[in-house]
Structure formats: structure tokens, C-alpha cells
């Protein structure tokens, strides 16, 4: 292939790549990759073309002027086209190891998924480096988003504007969407700012009612959460930028805080004394019951589903769900369960085979953009063909190598024998919607059943994507799809999670090979110098 053919081919590939990017039919990662390769090819073609250009034009003076003018015009066209391409395909590149110059997902995702105009005014203290860093991160996240209007104002320079908006302190953010306004004070964490955006975008208030009275882990949301601030290698940081939430492992403080941050309300529901489900309850959540519900309570939840209710059931191997519970709430829609624990030797978290890891999901609004999740000590769900008018989707399941074992506490309590091992994939969480058998067609229910309540507890909520899964379940039940979906704040120390094989390899290298090699090299050095 001649040099001219190479130039033409490179320019053609670059043009085709830019054309593909212009249609927007690809993912952002694929588009950026193709754009990068196209730019390299175009630069190579231009370099090869420039090498072939003569230093001085041949022929008459007029032809030389024409040649030089064409070269100048071509250079101007190339520079103009490059600037237009950079403007249309602006890509942020952060080379810092800690991603200090990259906005968090809580902010970038909510801006990228905006459907209505949003205005954000940030009154900051110019002498506060954390506030200045937040201003810069928001500007990075807001680039090329026509629905997002951002203004950063130094409070000392425009106190009148701040007073008109009700701002009285430094580092206060004012978010406005249509006729709604949210004011957030002492904001130096961009993730918190992104979650506050969800509150101003919310057009209605959703209330999650947690069932209590049967040993559930729910407790009323405290007026103040306990945080601890950790010194880092960079020195002391302002509280709020790196807080760690302190909470009991079995409680639901992280879930409640995440719901509060996106604008959900929560309340306690004692089904033992309730004659009907309160009308302001958007979702009923029964998380980790230890004692059996009475027949009246089960009938109350059954009538709620039959009337088009939304119910979340996070059960445990120790949860008593036999009798009326299974007959009225599970069997009518083709579900059942048994008191057992799923063990997965192939996909599990860390070294515990009873902490089933789920890396793959079906297509469903709940599992959209969901990464790895962990189902610790989960009971299996038996799934049969649902009745007509009910759609059922298995959200999570174990691998082909999984099997069942009996919980020791359950065997001791019942006095029975351990159930026989059943190998094969076991459903861990299912989502159902449609018309409850025997109900009217206009009463459409939604139901989620999972075999463990620990995925939403403080202990496992911040790990991998368990927090996102817990929030997605409640948001899907409440039909809260108008506002964007963003991951909750982890509020925990960063850590490195190693698999069993990685832990073994690290032990061999650090505890065996490193000391052994030091001793061997020391002996060799002594032998040479003796």
C-alpha cells in the first residue's frame, strides 16, 4: 500500500468514527474509545502528509503563493475542525490515583439522567479549599448538560443575592426544579449534593412503612446518626467529607439514611394492632421477622396485596413462614420456601461459601446497572409457574454448583433432621407484579421476596452493590421511576477485599517468599565476603 493510500484510509476511518459518534447509538465508553483511535489515525495521516510537503513551492511565484495559501487554509481548517470535535466530544480525564478530580457517581449520574431543568446555586467560602474543590467538581460534572444550570457565588461578594434566597451560612447549596426548592447547608461533599438533587426532583413523597413486632431489625430513624472522622495520609480533613457511619451490624441505619437522603419518609407499622394498612404507606416492608405472624396479620397483608399493594419480604432461614403465611402470601403466586441455607462453592464472597455472590442478573428495572451483590446466609425460594395475570422474574440466583444445608439453629428448634442436599441453582430473590388471583384487573400489586434480610443490614449494605439493590427494590415497589437512580453513600472506610486465592497468594509472597529470599540473599552475600 502506498503512502497516499495510507493517508486516505486513515482519514476515511477517522471520518467514519466521528460519524458513528455523532449518531449517539453507542455507549459512552465505546464512543470515547473509537474517538481516541480515530484521532490517532488522523494525526498519523496529517504527520505523513506534512512530511511529504516541500519546504518551498516549485514553479512560478504565483503557483508558490497558491500552494502556500492552500497549506495555510488547510491548517486553519484542521485546527478549526479539531476544536469543534473537542467541543462536541468533551471527555474528562483524571490521572490522579485517588480520582480527586472526578465527581462521584451520586452527582454525575443524576445530572446525566436529568429529564427536567435543574438550577443549582452554590454560595461558598472562597478561602475554604474543600468548598473550592466542590465548586470545581460540580463544574466538571455540569459540562455540556443543557438541562443543568450551575452558578458558584462567593458569599462575601454577593450577600444580597444570598439573602434573597434565604442563605445565611457559607457553603450552602440552593437547588430549584420547577416550583420546588431545596436548601442544603454546610455542603462540602459532592455525593451529598447529588443525593439532595433527588429530593428537589421528587414530585411526590413516598412513605415506606416497616412492619415491627416480630423481632425485626427495624427501629425508628434516630434524630442523629453517629459518625466518626478518620485521619488520613493527607492530614486532617473537614468533617463531612470523609465521615464513617457507626451503627450496629444487624440494624438498618444505612438503609434508612439512604432513603432519607433521596426524599423518602419512613414510619413504623405494628400489624398486630392495625385494622387496615394506612393509606399513606407507599410500600410495606417486612424485613427479617423472627416470630410467626398471626393469622389476622397475614390476612391483613394478603388483603393489602389483593387490593393492589406493594410489599417487600426479606426473609431469613430462621423466619417462621409456614402455615398461613405461606398459604396466603406465597402459594397464590407460585412461591414457596424451606428452612435451609444456600451454599455456593463457586460464587461466594470472600472465603465464606454461605455468602452467595451474584454477578449476573436478568433484564429488569431493579437490576439495571447493578454490579456484584452478596446474599449472606440466604434461604432458597421455590418458584413454580405463576397464575395467569402475574409476571414473575428471578432477580438473583446461585450458581450450578450450589447446594442446600440445614441451619443448626433451625434443626435444634424443630428437632428434625437436616434436609437432603439439593444441588443446582437456587432462586434467592424474585419480583412479581400483576393482578392478584381473585382481585379486580384494576388492582395491580407488586411483590418482592428475598431469602435474606442481611443484604439491607448495616453489615452488608455498604459492600459491593447491596445498597443499590436494596434501594432499587423499594423504589421499584413505589414506582419511583421519575427521578434518576443513583448509588447511596457508603459512609465506611475504604478497604481492599480479596478472594480466597488472592489471600493465599499474598500470604505466600509476603510471609514465605519475601523472608526466604531475604535469608537466601543474605547467605549469598556472606559467602562472597567471607
Helix and strand composition category: alpha/beta
Radius of gyration: 30 Å
- Main beta sheet strand tally, sense and closure: 7 strands, mixed
Quote the distance from N terminus to C terminus.
Answer: 65 Å
Strand percentage lies at 15-25%
**Main sheet strand line-up:** 8-5-9-10-20-19-17
* Number of E-state strands: 20
Average predicted local confidence, pLDDT: 83
Helix content: 25-40%
Shape: globular
Query: In terms of per-residue confidence, which ranges show pLDDT below 50 for 5 or more consecutive residues?
Result: 19-25, 231-239, 409-420
**Tally of DSSP helical segments:** 13
Question: What does this entry show, briefly?
Answer:
The protein has 530 residues and is of the alpha/beta class. It is built from 13 helices and 20 strands.
Tags for this model:
about 525 residues; 7-stranded mixed β-sheet; 20 strands; alpha/beta; 13 helices
Give your account of this protein's structure.
There is one protein chain. This protein is α/β, with parallel strands linked by helices and 530 residues long. Helices cover 36% and strands 20% of the residues. The strands form 6 sheets. The chain has a 7-stranded mixed beta sheet with strand order 8-5-9-10-20-19-17, with helices on both faces. A 4-stranded mixed beta sheet has the order 2-1-3-4, covered by helices on one side. Strands 13-14-15 form a 3-stranded antiparallel beta sheet, with no helix packed on it. The model is unreliable at 19-25, 231-239 and 409-420 (pLDDT under 50).
Amino acid at each position: 500500500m502506498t503512502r497516499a493510500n495510507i493517508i486516505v484510509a486513515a482519514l476515511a476511518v477517522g471520518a467514519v468514527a466521528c460519524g458513528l459518534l455523532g449518531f449517539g447509538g453507542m455507549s459512552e465508553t465505546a464512543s470515547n474509545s473509537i474517538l481516541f483511535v480515530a484521532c490517532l489515525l488522523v494525526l498519523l495521516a496529517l504527520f505523513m502528509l506534512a512530511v511529504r510537503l516541500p519546504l518551498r513551492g516549485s514553479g512560478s511565484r504565483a503557483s508558490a503563493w497558491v500552494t502556500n495559501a492552500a497549506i495555510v487554509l488547510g491548517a486553519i481548517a484542521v485546527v478549526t475542525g479539531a476544536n469543534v470535535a473537542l467541543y462536541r466530544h468533551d471527555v474528562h480525564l483524571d490521572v490522579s490515583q485517588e480520582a480527586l478530580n472526578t465527581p462521584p457517581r451520586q452527582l454525575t449520574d443524576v445530572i446525566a439522567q436529568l429529564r427536567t431543568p435543574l438550577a443549582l446555586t452554590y454560595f461558598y467560602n472562597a478561602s475554604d479549599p474543600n468548598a473550592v474543590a466542590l465548586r470545581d467538581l460540580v463544574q466538571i460534572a455540569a459540562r455540556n448538560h443543557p438541562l443543568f444550570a450551575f452558578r458558584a457565588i462567593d458569599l462575601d461578594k454577593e450577600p444580597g443575592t444570598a439573602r434573597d434566597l434565604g442563605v445565611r451560612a457559607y457553603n450552602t447549596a440552593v437547588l430549584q426544579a420547577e416550583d420546588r426548592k431545596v436548601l442544603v447547608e454546610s455542603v462540602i461533599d459532592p455525593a451529598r449534593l447529588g443525593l439532595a438533587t433527588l429530593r428537589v426532583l421528587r414530585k411526590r413523597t413516598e412513605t415506606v412503612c416497616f412492619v415491627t413486632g416480630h423481632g425485626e431489625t427495624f427501629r425508628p430513624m434516630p434524630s442523629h446518626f453517629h459518625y466518626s472522622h478518620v485521619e488520613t495520609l493527607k492530614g486532617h480533613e473537614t468533617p463531612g467529607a470523609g465521615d464513617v457511619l457507626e451503627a450496629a451490624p444487624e440494624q438498618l441505619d444505612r438503609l434508612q439514611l439512604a432513603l432519607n437522603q433521596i426524599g423518602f419518609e419512613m414510619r413504623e407499622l405494628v400489624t398486630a394492632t392495625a385494622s387496615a394498612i394506612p393509606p399513606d404507606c407507599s410500600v410495606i416492608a417486612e424485613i427479617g421477622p423472627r416470630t410467626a405472624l398471626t393469622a389476622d396479620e397475614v390476612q391483613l397483608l394478603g388483603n393489602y396485596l389483593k387490593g393492589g399493594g406493594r410489599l417487600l419480604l426479606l426473609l431469613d432461614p430462621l423466619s417462621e413462614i409456614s402455615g398461613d403465611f405461606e398459604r396466603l402470601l406465597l402459594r397464590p403466586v407460585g412461591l414457596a420456601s424451606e428452612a435451609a441455607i444456600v451454599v455456593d462453592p463457586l460464587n461466594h464472597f470472600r472465603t465464606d461459601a454461605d455468602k452467595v455472590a451474584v454477578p449476573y442478573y436478568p433484564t429488569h428495572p431493579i437490576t439495571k446497572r447493578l454490579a456484584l451483590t452478596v446474599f449472606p446466609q440466604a434461604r432458597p425460594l421455590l418458584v413454580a409457574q405463576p397464575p395467569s395475570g402475574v409476571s414473575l422474574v428471578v432477580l438473583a440466583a446461585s450458581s450450578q454448583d450450589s447446594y442446600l444445608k440445614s441451619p443448626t439453629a433451625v434443626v435444634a428448634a424443630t428437632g428434625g433432621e437436616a434436609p437432603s442436599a439439593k444441588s443446582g441453582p437456587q432462586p434467592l430473590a424474585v419480583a412479581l407484579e400483576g393482578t392478584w388471583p381473585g382481585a379486580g384487573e384494576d388492582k395491580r400489586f407488586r411483590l418482592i421476596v428475598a431469602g435474606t434480610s442481611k443484604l439491607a443490614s448495616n453489615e452488608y449494605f455498604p459492600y459491593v452493590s447491596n445498597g443499590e439493590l436494596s434501594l432499587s427494590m423499594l423504589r421499584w415497589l413505589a414506582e419511583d421511576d421519575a427521578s434518576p437512580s443513583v448509588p447511596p453513600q457508603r459512609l465506611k472506610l475504604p478497604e481492599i477485599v480479596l478472594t480466597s486465592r488472592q489471600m493465599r497468594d499474598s500470604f505466600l509472597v509476603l510471609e514465605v517468599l519475601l523472608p526466604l529470599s531475604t535469608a537466601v540473599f543474605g547467605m549469598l552475600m556472606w559467602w562472597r565476603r567471607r
